[in-house]
């Protein structure tokens, strides 16, 4: 296997593609106010050219290099005005989850095919997209290759041996390709003996077992570290408001706050700096993490909230930002459209608009899809997904197919470096021409643009007093990259003073898009 590493510089990373000057474009919901972050400290020179890559809903263009565009026109009627002095949250990363179902499918591939797949996912070289964030389920989810399990199904007998069979080897191979992958740990359920009802499915964590569950999570973090995987971030209950027929946990906000006080003490005693994100559920209940924050004041490791896409709208995240906390977007699964022929295009547009643009224009630092790989039946899985859930890739009979999720993520991670800052830009409303713009640590700028409307749109990007003009087909996504020749990157604002968002986005999707992606599910 060729060992490659993800560089910190877009300019260096794309040199192998013959790219000298870079540019990125994407999607974003309208109406974000100017951030309260610290502005850049130096005036940039005016850009001269940009580079563009495009993916279309019909699949005819898939991260296709569209060549060089010159900053040589005036602003058009539709203009993306970039404001580098408006600096907000960082980009932490994007990726998916290596569920046991995903790991089994990847592990079952011939060695050469497996190596090629993982390089395409985690390397930026050649046609790789450089994924750099994995949300790692801790124990069983609804996507397993065998029966349900935790790491301590019998009290006193803790082991991650089952993860060592397929999951951890895949994670280590991903790390060998991209050592800069960041990991979040997310359990679906504590061991059944800690819960009311005595089952992994549903039930709540008994108060008398808070200490045991905290110790269980500490041991899990330590055991993963011994295997070479650092769980830097943690949530304590996947979808705590959705107890169901697969491993799950019912946990109120008050209960979560109480448990986090116990967990914080255990993590501190173990010398672990793990960050905690509250909630880990849908956009429709931002009151939940706000209540957790109120109940955990003074606990510095409770840094923010994690959100999913199956209810509500991304604008709810702004309430967490307004509370001075950080936002991670941690799960969304695409599903088949009513007409399967439309699945690629519907997923491309809906995910790009909601999981990238609207998410990031409302404080999101991450975009994390759900399963990294699933088979032609959307499995193996143990619940829901009546319209078939889809992974970032499909693996069937030894053949790997890149789904729309691959390109939604690739338009981000191939061009935006971890640590980049979102900077200001004007954008249309949901369903129109939307964008989000970042500045990399090396000063290059990246615009992620989505045209969610059915017809092509001609527009300009204006930065430092110069404009480029481009026409983007209907229902397509593009990334534009350029170098404003600046030697100064935006200063790092205090998270407590991050920008406020005032959005008038409707929350509606473009015609034909599947919303929510897991149709018919209450997840």
Automatic annotation (TrEMBL):
GO terms for molecular function: hydrolase activity. Residues 419-480 form the Glycosyl hydrolase family 30 beta sandwich domain. Keywords: Glycosidase, Hydrolase, Signal. Residues 1-30 form the signal peptide. Residues 502-514 have a biased composition (Low complexity). Residues 479-523 are annotated as: Disordered. Residues 479-490 have a biased composition (Polar residues). Residues 93-416 form the Glycosyl hydrolase family 30 TIM-barrel domain. Transmembrane segments: none annotated. Belongs to the glycosyl hydrolase 30 family. This is Glycoside hydrolase family 30 beta sandwich domain-containing protein. It comes from Promicromonospora kroppenstedtii.
């Amino acid at each position: 296997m060729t060992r490659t590493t993800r560089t910190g510089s877009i300019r260096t990373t794309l040199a192998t593609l013959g790219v000298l000057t870079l540019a990125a474009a994407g999607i974003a919901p309208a109406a974000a106010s100017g951030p309260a972050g610290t502005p850049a400290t130096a005036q940039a020179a005016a850009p001269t050219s940009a580079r563009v890559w495009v993916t279309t809903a019909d699949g005819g263009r898939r991260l296709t290099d569209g060549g060089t565009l010159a900053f040589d026109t005036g602003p058009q009627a539709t203009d993306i005005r970039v404001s580098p002095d408006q600096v907000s949250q960082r980009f932490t990363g994007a990726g998916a989850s290596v569920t046991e179902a995903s790991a089994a499918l990847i592990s079952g591939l011939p060695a050469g095919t497996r190596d090629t797949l993982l390089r395409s996912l985690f390397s930026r070289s050649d046609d790789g997209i450089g994924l750099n964030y994995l949300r790692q389920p801790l124990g069983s989810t609804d996507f397993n290759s065998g029966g349900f399990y935790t790491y301590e199904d019998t009290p006193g007998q803790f082991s991650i041996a089952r993860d060592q069979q397929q999951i951890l080897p895949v994670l280590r191979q991903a790390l060998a390709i991209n050592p800069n992958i960041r990991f979040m740990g997310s359990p679906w359920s504590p061991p059944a003996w800690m819960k009311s009802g005595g089952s992994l499915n549903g039930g709540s964590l008994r108060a008398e077992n808070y200490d045991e569950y905290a110790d269980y999570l500490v041991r899990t973090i330590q055991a993963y570290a011994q295997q070479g995987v650092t769980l830097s971030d943690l949530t304590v209950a996947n979808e705590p408001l959705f107890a169901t027929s697969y491993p799950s946990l019912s946990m109120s906000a008050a209960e979560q706050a109480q448990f986090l006080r116990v967990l914080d003490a255990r993590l501190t005693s173990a010398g672990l700096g793990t960050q905690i994100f509250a909630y880990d559920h849908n956009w429709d209940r931002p009151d939940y993490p706000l209540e957790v924050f109120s109940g955990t004041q003074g606990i510095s490791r409770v840094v923010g909230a994690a959100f999913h896409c199956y209810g509500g709208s991304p604008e709810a995240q702004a309430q967490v930002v307004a509370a001075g906390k950080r936002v991670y977007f941690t799960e969304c699964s695409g599903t088949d459209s009513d007409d399967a022929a439309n699945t690629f295009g519907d997923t491309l547009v809906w995910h790009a608009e909601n999981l990238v643009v609207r998410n990031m224009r409302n404080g999101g630092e991450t975009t994390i899809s759900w399963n990294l790989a699933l088979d032609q039946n959307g499995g193996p899985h143990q619940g829901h997904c009546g319209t078939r859930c889809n992974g970032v890739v499909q693996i069937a009979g030894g053949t790997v197919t890149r789904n729309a999720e691959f390109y939604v993520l690739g338009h981000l991670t191939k061009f935006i470096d971890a640590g980049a800052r979102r900077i200001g830009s004007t954008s249309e409303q949901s369903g129109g021409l939307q964008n989000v713009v970042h500045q990399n640590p090396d000063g290059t700028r990246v615009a992620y643009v989505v045209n969610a409307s059915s017809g092509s749109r001609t527009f300009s990007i204006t930065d430092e007093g110069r404009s480029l003009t481009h026409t983007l087909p209907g229902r397509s996504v593009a990334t534009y990259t350029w170098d404003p020749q600046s030697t100064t990157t935006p200063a790092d604002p205090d998270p407590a003073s991050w920008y406020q968002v005032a959005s008038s986005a409707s929350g509606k999707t473009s015609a034909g898009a599947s919303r929510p992606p897991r149709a018919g599910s209450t997840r």
